[in-house]
Amino acid sequence: MKPVSFYAAYILKKLWTFAAILLVVVAVSISVLRFSLPYMENQKHRVETWLSNQYGVELRIGQLSADWNQNGPTLVLKNVHLKQDQKSPIGLQISETLIELNFWESIMARQVQSQRFELNGLALSVNLALIQTSENEFPIVEAMQRLFLEQLHRFSISNSIVDVITQYDQQLIQIQQLSWINKANRHQGVGQLRVVELANNSATFTLDLYGGKDDLNGTFYARGEELDLSPWLNQLVRTQNQLTQSRGNFTFWAGIKQGRVENAQIELQKSEFAWTTPDARVEAAIVGGRIRAVPDSLGWKFNIDDLTFESQQRQLVTSWVGHIGRDGSSRISNVNSLDMGFLLPLLPLAVDKQTIEFVERLSPKAHIDNFAVSFGSSFLASVDFSQVQWNQVDSLPGLANITGRYVMNDEHGRLTVQGIAGKIQTDNVMDDNLLYENLYMDAYFEWHDRGLRIDVPEFNIEGDQFSLNQQFSYDTQDNQLALFTELDSLPISSVKKLFPNRFLDPQTKNYLVDALQDGQLASAQVLWQGALSEFPFANNQGVFQAKVDLTDSTLKFAPSWPALTELDIKLLFENEALFMRADKGQLMDVSLSKLSAQIPRLASNAVLSIQAQAHANSKDAVALINNSDLAESLGQALTEGIRLDGTLTTQLDLTIPLGEGDVVAAGSVALSGNSLTVPSLGISFDDVKGQVSFNNDLVTADDIVASLFSQPVTVSFQGRDGPAEAYLADIGLSGDWQLTPLLKTYQPSMSKYVNGNASWQAQTKLTLGGESYAYSFELSSQLKGVGSELPAPFTKDTGLTMPLSIIVSGQNQASNINLKLADNITFEGVLPHDTMQFSRAHLAIGADEAVGMGLGFSISANLPFVDFDAWFEAISVLVNNLPSSEAPMLSEPQRVYVNADSMLIAGQNIQQLELVAKHSTEDWLLEFNADQIRAEVIFYDDWLNRGIDIKADFIELADWQGEKNEGFQQANLQNLPPVNFACKSCKLFGKDLGRVDFSLSRSPKGMQIDNLRFNNTNGILYATGEWQMSDAGSKTQLQGELSSPDFGALLKGFGLDSGIKDSKANFDFNVSWDDAPHKFSLASLNGAVDWRLTDGYLSDVSDQGARLFSILSLQSLIRKLSLDFRDVFAKGFFYDKMDGSFQIVNGRADTRDTVIDGSAGEMVISGYADLSSQEINYLIEFAPNVTSSLPLLVYWMVNPATAIAALAIDQVLTEAKVISNVRYSVTGSFDEPVFTELDRKSKEVALPARTLPPVQSEPDKVHRELPDERVNLQINKGGDPRG
What we know:
Blueprint: H1 4-36, H2 44-55, E1 59-68, E2 73-82, E3 90-101, H3 103-109, E4 114-127, H4 128-133, H5 139-151, E5 154-165, E6 170-183, E7 186-195, E8 203-210, E9 217-227, H6 230-236, E10 242-257, E11 260-276, E12 281-295, E13 299-311, E14 314-325, E15 330-334, E16 338-339, H7 353-362, E17 365-375, E18 380-390, E19 399-409, E20 412-424, E21 434-448, E22 451-462, E23 467-475, E24 480-487, E25 490-491, H8 492-495, H9 506-515, E26 516-531, E27 543-555, E28 564-574, E29 577-587, E30 590-599, E31 607-616, H10 618-625, H11 631-640, E32 643-645, E33 648-657, E34 664-678, E35 683-695, E36 698-708, E37 711-721, E38 726-738, H12 739-746, E39 754-769, E40 772-781, E41 786-788, E42 804-811, E43 814-821, E44 825-832, E45 840-846, E46 856-867, H13 868-880, E47 895-905, E48 908-920, E49 923-929, E50 933-939, E51 948-957, E52 979-988, E53 991-1003, E54 1006-1016, E55 1019-1030, E56 1033-1044, H14 1047-1053, E57 1060-1061, E58 1065-1073, E59 1086-1093, E60 1096-1098, H15 1106-1111, H16 1114-1121, H17 1126-1129, E61 1133-1145, E62 1148-1158, E63 1161-1170, ...
Protein name: YhdP family protein
Region (Disordered): 1248-1283
Domain YhdP central: 12-1234
């Protein structure tokens, strides 16, 4: 085996041999390569094919030359073209490429290594959109990255263009010089570049990167000094003016991470710009600011901080935020507010000189709160502003303190503004400025080559007195204004201030100011189309129209005629003409419809033509004519002849010269259901049918049929001029009337009194002349067929005649009317025509006592018997159905005189009555003087507040002749008046009530009984209370007291002999019952009564032991010492006091504490009495030393049980208490009491009795039936009370 050294030497020998061979091969190859390089031109197609196959691109080389230098081959390629398509996102054209290869480094790196790489005239197109969106990889991109970042140690580029294509835009970057060095992982380039669309000159830049081609990081820095930014400005500021200066200065940084730009920042230095317009030089500058940007998914977002502009020595500092999208769109908005006045010096860049002058006159001001603008496929901008104002210019109003928003899209803009509580300057075109509460405008702007067009579709103004809606359009090119305005409700006085001074002829305006006197503008519409300077558009080159709707207005259309009032009229001003149309209006009191009027030209000597249908009655029409040029002709005829009342339909034609000339009025009146009045007769006719024609002073009416009080009549009228300027008229009337339907229509309640039919005839003759007239009227009828059931003397049978004659004569001032019915009824009166109310009138019924007429209306009646209730019913029926009127023709009478031998009133027969009623001021005073009454009664006109006052000297009513409850009806709170009653001496049914006073006043729940007092010599009663009324019914409540110095005498005065002597009494009571005060109800009586009687005696008590009780009593002994021994020797029962109380519930009176302290002993009574059923149930106990009695007062107040007291006394006093104790029960009824002795503990002691002289009893009173609303009090007289 050979040694290792042998093998080592062998291997080394072979290696040297291989190296030698390799060197020879390499040397030969290099030599071959060097000598073949000049012939590379013939092999360029091979190079093209290899590169195309290697990188999948289509490459063409115009010329290829090669040489060898000390480091390796040198290649020169000219006109190299790489086609850009879907396979290659990169396209390039290179004028000349110089490549020096480092041969040995390329061998060592096994890839091409360049010592020198120069590109001159490069035109590179990079489709970033294709690279970013394609899912395929492009070898050419990878190859170029390796070439320029790894294979080339250094390269340079000069005079080249890079075209970067994104998805939405394309950007050209001109690289004037670029030197690039690659050293390991560090890559750096320095050069100059220009963004074609941004500047005309270059900025220096440095790109410093590190890392591999797939993870490049670093910084891009650029600095621009005195850059010409005109390409960018010309694109940003679209103007036809020349940009004469553009010097921009800035510094730019961009951070690169992982091959992408991570952030960017620009520091702005002072940059100056200037434009030259045909009339001025516009200068602006950016003084400073900072721009920062970072990428996002859609592009780049950026902030602009403290950007400072300067123009015309005005400076603006503002900050912005924005976004630049990959789609080429950009948007920006402000962070802080700015003053819009800064932009005014820049207006010449956008508008022409005429517009600038217009804006300068406007002198607009505004504060921009929010501003946003977007660039892209279109230009968008929005601005929120406040504190906006501009001056009034020509016919354009001025505004102040406006807020709003402006939005712009390319050449179009929209402006919305709003103002609150401000002023619109309009005194250039109107009389005054306009004050408003709210203002809103929506305007559109269009900038065109020849100026500005403004369209305002909505302009609203709301003020305290008006509301305006306006749309208008204005073009600065031809000074054309198109305007439409709507004005809401506004007083006429304010409308006059809105007449435009510049566009209305002065005579037209003066006429309108004078004609429009009052009213309300409901709405108005103004239309303008044309140049402002060409009004009144004589050649139809424009139009001015104003449509005005007036309501309830007053129009003085001619000086010699009354003004049109209550006018709802539509006015149309068209250039210099005026047209009017109204559906309704009032000419004085004449209603007009279908009114139309024309003034062809509002100039001197204009003529107004009016056509209308008039709706009026003749009275109103005559009043109108009397206030016009026709007063002395047609007015006189219609005033003094006849009057057509009611609604008339008249065709009226008026021709009214506004200058000199007479008014001509003609027309006709078609009567169909109207009313006709003859003033001289004072009568009116309804349902008038026929034809009335007029032509100035001539009036004719033939064959007129009419209805008077719904009854047919025939009327004829002929009016004509007479001699001496007099006017003659003959009127004939006739009719046959059915009274029953007449009364049912006009006075239904009287139809039960009067019926039948009557024929009548009347003739009237009129003489009218000058300022006076005279007439006569006669009507006659026998009234046969008429029946009357009115009280005498108006009672009549239908088969009898009762001649009726009416004669009326009069002149201008008044008419004298005389009426006679039968032989005993006459009426005469004087009727002034100015008031149409009788100034004097008198109605005499019965025997005439020659009562003369005084002022007002009076009635006299002299009759043997008057049924007041019957007349009251008839008159009430008549008066209550009369129509209400503030000025009736025949007012209520001022005086009424009645003399009657007998008058039946309220069920009482009053003898020898003299009644005088006077209407004083507004109240009625009635004086009654008769055998039974003398009193004054005042009925106040203020019925519900003051009511009735009654003051009587005496009233004596012996009996009641009416039915029970007659005259009483269910009370109505709404109709009840206050009442004050005072009677000095009142006797009712023979009972002396003494002086009686009471007063009632209204309260929310009914009537308040303020006081009620009865006062005579034996006692006084005073009470107050309330009379409550509701839908459920009424209730009366009384509380008060009764005091009497001699209670027995008081009772006796009312016909009640109670047996009580020498005893004072005092009662306190509080009671109520369910009904009116005059409808006392026992069944519903509730309340309480406390009573007290002082010492006295019962005169009719039998002597059966009570005297013994008195003798044994210590109290009696004291009285004996006072020499008062009547209790021993006189007939009767003595007591020292009586007292007790009653509680009354639903008519049941209950007592638990009635005590009678007598000389014989004490008696205690408890129990009850049912006042409604008259049942009683008492328990009586007798004890020593207490005077015994029965509930005498209980009887007086609540029952007729005096007999009970007498019987109890007779039973008790037969024994002395000192040896006895007696208990009784009393049951039964008031009329039949039942006494039962319950217990007796006694030892009888006989006492001698002394018989007193008999007491003369009063004769029995005649029993009279009281109205059942009174308590029927009775005293059981005579006989033994025990039965």
